[in-house]
Amino acid sequence: MKHIPNILTCSRILLAILLLVVMLHWEYIAPSWVDISWRNYCACLIFCIASITDFFDGYIARQFDLGSTFGEVFDPLADKMLILGAFIGLLLLDRANAWAVFIILAREFYITGLRVVAANSRQNVAASPLGKYKTGFQILAVAFLLADFFPGGTLFLWIAVVVTLYSGLDYTFKYYKAIV
């Protein structure tokens, strides 16, 4: 039982790789008679399953006090690999705005750096509910853009950008309050 959160984290990393393979190399995976729209559905399904593992690894770790150093380090990295893989695929399939993707990914790298600096100065910048909303809107946007059957994906993407920037500012202010 104690390894389940870490297994889920590792599965998310593998699913992120599989997601990118399905998005970019569908013609090598599927028989020629399978419609290209199935790539969208398969990619969306893989992404949604991977996103669910993000919820359950954290829930199980907290519920059963199974936190680990591995989980603390690799859980956020697995999250970023999944989002990065999805956005790279969406950019290459011309389904996502490059500026929106850049803003989201730049914020993710910035906050990762901020967390490293905070940890080195022995400060703990706790996650806020805004981070959960940010993740939720990013997942929603990516899922709709991957499925490619509803035009609202772009709207959700820009909402995700706004929430992502706002949560980044929140983390920044919390960090600077902690060090002052």
Describe the structure.
The protein has two domains: about 1-95; about 95-180. The model has no long low-confidence stretch (mean pLDDT about 95). With about 180 residues, it is mainly α. The longest helix is centred in the C-terminal third of the chain and has 28 residues, at about 150-180. The protein contains seven helices and no strands. Belongs to the CDP-alcohol phosphatidyltransferase class-I family. One of its GO terms (biological process) is glycerophospholipid biosynthetic process. InterPro entries: CDP-alcohol_PTase-I (IPR050324), CDP-OH_P_trans (IPR000462), CDP-OH_PTrfase_TM_dom (IPR043130), CDP_ALCOHOL_P_TRANSF_CS (IPR048254), Phosphatidylglycerol_P_synth (IPR004570). Keywords: Lipid biosynthesis, Lipid metabolism, Membrane, Phospholipid biosynthesis, Phospholipid metabolism, Transferase, Transmembrane, Transmembrane helix.
* SSE order, one letter for each helix or strand: HHHHHHH
What structural class should be given to the helix and strand makeup?
Answer: mainly alpha
Number of H/I helices: 7
Number-wise, the strands total 0
- Our estimate of the beta-strand percent is under 5%
- Biggest β-sheet: count, sense, barrel? none
- Overall number of domains: 2
Main location: membrane
Protein name: CDP-diacylglycerol--glycerol-3-phosphate 3-phosphatidyltransferase
Membrane topology: Multi-pass membrane protein
Pathway: Phospholipid metabolism; phosphatidylglycerol biosynthesis; phosphatidylglycerol from CDP-diacylglycerol: step 1/2
